[in-house]
């Protein structure tokens, strides 16, 4: 009996220590639960709602499981009722089917509502800032098309202003993630994905690549520096005055698999982002805005060595060949039709 008591006490101690270790990370510094922008706040509320709804199912199940183990334990003095032929209860079936269905319905509604709301371009009085992001091995390239500057492994944004990130990859598929500002979005070769984020106040936020992409994937980190609009404008002017420029040869070198420190470029080749997208297949993620059309989709750049004109000519040649094949087949059918008419 004493051994059983000591063993039980040891198990409780181990359980308590494990619980303390697990809860040690659940403080205010845990970035997912420290939202600093409207997108992250919406997703944070959805996470909390999901936890509460799941707890409505999980906690009673765990409690009932513990009660059943204790109530129907195999001991000589246990007087719990024993019903070997019991197999039906309308009340219990309604509870264990009805409650999960209602919870899934509620969770599905709020998830779909927030997902579609966050995918749409926000309606704001201020003009959003455009930033084009390319994931490389093992670094991040940020391009500012309106300012014609570029950075590596860090990005500046004005606080309180919506930022439209256009994402692609010139390396294996990755995932762009700034936990305190919003959820992650894939970067894929041949695709230009869309992500809207905003930082409500100045600060320095951690960003990372959330996908495994090779031996140095742990170095796919970057910093997002949010600052007042005036400070952002000063930073842009400072970058434009720097001598370091990103050339086509420089980009090819940058795209090679390697780690990189933070870099700044006062300019970069025109159409670089679109050329990377089209080089790997070419496609733009459709935004959920019927009144907006991306002008970049109208004149894609082809880096494969074959121009759009050549591609169209090739397609026309294929169509002509198909028409010739159809004419040949029709001519082969005519004698059979004539013979049939003569027999008639």
Your description of this structure?
Keywords: Cell membrane, Electron transport, Lipoprotein, Membrane, Oxidoreductase, Palmitate, Respiratory chain, Signal, Transmembrane, Transmembrane helix, Transport. Residues 286-300 have a biased composition (Basic and acidic residues). Catalyzes quinol oxidation with the concomitant reduction of oxygen to water. Subunit II transfers the electrons from a quinol to the binuclear center of the catalytic subunit I. By secondary structure, the chain is α+β, with helices and mostly antiparallel strands. The protein has two domains: 30-119, Helix Hairpins (Orthogonal Bundle); 129-286, Cupredoxins -  blue copper proteins (Immunoglobulin-like). Helices cover 43% and strands 17% of the residues. The chain has a six-stranded mixed β-sheet with strand order 8-5-1-2-3-11. Strands 4-10-9-6-7 form a five-stranded mixed β-sheet. Strand 2 (139-144) and strand 3 (149-152) form a beta hairpin. Helix 2 (38-71) packs antiparallel against helix 3 (90-119). The longest helix has 36 residues, at 308-343. The radius of gyration is 31 Å and the shape is elongated. The N and C termini lie far apart (106 Å).
